[in-house]
Amino acid sequence: MEILNYEVLEKSGYDGYILKDAPEKVMQFGEGNFLRAFVDYWFDVSNEKADWNGKCVLVQPIKPGLAEMINKQEGLYTLYLRGRENGEKVDRKRVISSVSRCLNPYEEEGFKAMMELAVSDDLEYIVSNTTEAGIVYDPSCKFEDKPANSFPGKLTQVLYERFKAGKGGLVILSCELIDNNGKELQKCVNQYIDQWELGDDFKKYVNEDCTFCSTLVDRIVPGRIRDAEEVARLEEINGYSDPLLVVGEVFGVWNIEGPAWLEEKLPFKRAGVNCIVVPDVTPYKKRKVRILNGAHTGFVLGAYLAGFSIVRECMENATVLGFMNKMLYDEVIPTLPLDKNDLMNFAQAVQDRFNNPFVNHELMSISLNSTSKWRARCFPSFAEYVEKYGKLPACLTTSFAAYIAFYSSNIQELTDAGLVCKDPQGRTYTISDDRWVLEFYYDHKDDDAATLTHAVMTNEQMWGEDLTKFEGFEAEVARILGEIRKDGTLKAYAACL
Questions:
Q1: Is 237 in a helix, a strand, or coil?
Q2: What's the whole-model pTM score?
Q3: Which of 63, 122, 223, 481 could form a disulfide with 401 if both were Cys (CB 3.0 to 4.6 A apart)?
Q4: Residue 96 DSSP class
Q5: Is 119 helix (H, G, I), strand (E, B) or coil?
Q6: Res. 224 pLDDT band, cuts 50 70 90
Q7: Is 496 helix (H, G, I), strand (E, B) or coil?
């Protein structure tokens, strides 16, 4: 089977949208699955729907990368968006043609090409997703390095080359999964300007002519299809082989923090894709953490104890689904600052996302580090609900009891791998968390429900405060924990409905 490129695609009979030639308007640091299923997809749709007429040049942020493979395919790759939308199963194929080429700056020609692109009149945007570890100031980087080892160092080199050429400022869209990603990236660039003594005029150019945007990205990208039979089936249907094929969920949203003029400059609004420019992404991050992540952490531990293994199974059970929805709609959404319809729509999309027929999302993988996750994702909703309504939220309270039950279910031993427990079905499972958390639960493995609840709630290292201060919380959690140990979590979940 021939590997995908423009000639092979034409021979295959593909009749979808393709744009072969266009100005290179984006320099993108990162060539992995996420950016190709997310950012490059947005720009591809913008070419089709908004006549954006642009291409993205990808840059390897680290030495090993996909440049050779991407260039062999002339930037083309196949994207499958799979999942549920408004309750309906969706499986969409699109060949992405918004990528022109990929550069390896660790090779002499690649570094030279990156600097040539830096001074192009067509260049408008720099996009990045160099993982959470990518936005870091490394003082060992030198201006003379070709390239600087850190991503902010490379970006400083690129912007300085553009500044020297007298070219206008760029819009920098940071997609790394850290808070204030754009601001942190700008801070690192300023540190290199000072370290490398690049001058006040360049610093003014970076901070006034360029626009650094913090952004919030949201799309689950499982990545490659690993089932050989499925790969062979798709190759037969498509008429080509595509080692760069990538799979993402249907849902996607991109919130960009920036000035009002940016929404008109970007092509996304005209293209009708789910991307908005806002003055502050903080409320949208809170929406994602409290609703999407909070839902996961809120129900999966109890669901595992009830015998479930993957998220989709939970969505097919009326009790677990009802518990999750009541928690989101009645207890979490009322504490959030955004428009209620927006929050309701986001929560509805969460149910579709969790019920994705193409993804087997294991509950045990979600359970990693659940102590800090419950504190970050669920506790703020709990505390704000109590403050607003003066009473305990039933589902979040039950969720906390289920968390304790999961960490204390028939504890077997503490090993290097984690805390080994058994669920009511007799399945052995290993909890992964901070070592001190696991040691705490192992030390309390023989406690009754009331004693363990008190010990957990008064552990300020876990929660940052003493949770017994919330009136009635300790007694209610101890009661529910006792019932879970006796009758199981499904009955406890059902009691909330």
A1: helix
A2: 0.89
A3: 481
A4: E
A5: coil
A6: confident
A7: coil
Report the candidate in 273, 290, 384 with the shortest Cα–Cα distance to residue 343.
290
In this predicted structure, which of 6-20, 27-41, 104-118, 220-234 has the lowest mean pLDDT? 220-234
Q: What is the distance between the alpha carbons of residues 97 and 45, in angstroms, rounded to a whole number?
A: 10
Q: Look up residue 160 and give its two tokens.
A: 């300085």
The separation between CA 479 and the C-alpha centre of its own chain, rounded to angstroms, equals 36
Closest CA to 134 of 113, 154, 109: 154
DSSP structure class, residue 206: I
Question: Which residues make beta-bridge pairs with 88?
Answer: 85
Nearest one of 357, 88, 129 to 222, comparing CA atoms: 357
**If DSSP codes are grouped into helix, strand and coil, which group holds residue 182?**
helix
Structure tokens at 258: 């920036």
> What does the buried/exposed string (b/e) look like for 17-50 if buried means 16 or more CB atoms within 10 Å of the residue's CB?
ebeeebebbbbbbbbbbbbbbbbbbbbbbbbbeb
- Domains present along the chain, CATH in parentheses: 6-278 (3.40.50.720), 283-495 (1.10.1040.10)
Name the DSSP class of 241. B
Q: Residue 202 CB: number of other CB atoms within 10 A?
A: 17
Q: Where are the beta strands (DSSP E) in 219-297?
A: 246-249, 253-257, 275-278
Q: What is the rounded average pLDDT of the residues 178-206?
A: 97
> Distances from the Cα of 432 to the Cαs of 268, 415, 435, in angstroms?
41, 10, 8
pLDDT digits (tens, 9 = 90+) for 287-310: 999 999 999 999 999 999 999 999
Does the pLDDT value for residue 359 go beyond 80?
yes
Q: Using CA atoms, how far apart are residues 197 and 202, in angstroms rounded to an integer?
A: 10
Distance set, CA 50 to CA 43, 100, 209, 254, 268 (Å): 10, 19, 26, 17, 8
Q: Residue 147: is the preceding peptide bond cis (ω within 30°)?
A: yes
What distance in Å separates the CA atoms of residue 125 and residue 468, rounded to the nearest whole number?
Answer: 51
Task: Tell me what pLDDT residue 317 has.
Answer: 98
Res. 50 pLDDT band, cuts 50 70 90? very high
Q: What is the mean pLDDT of residues 183-201?
A: 98
Q: Are 370 and 301 in contact (CB under 8 A)?
A: yes
Q: What's the pLDDT score for residue 191?
A: 98
175 token code pair:
């997609």
Cα 202 versus chain centre, distance: 33
What is the distance between the alpha carbons of residues 176 and 458, in angstroms, rounded to a whole number?
35
Q: What are the tokens at 48?
A: 């089709």
What whole-number distance in Å separates Cα of residue 171 and Cα of residue 313? 43
Mean pLDDT (whole number) for 122-144: 94
Q: Find, among 297, 298, 305, the residue nearest to 422 by Cα.
A: 305
Q: Are 494 and 466 in contact (CB under 8 A)?
A: no
Task: Decide: 135 and 172 in contact? Cβ < 8 Å.
Answer: no
Yes or no: say if 295 and 324 are a contact pair by the CB < 8 Å rule.
yes
Predicted confidence at residue 223, as pLDDT, reads 81
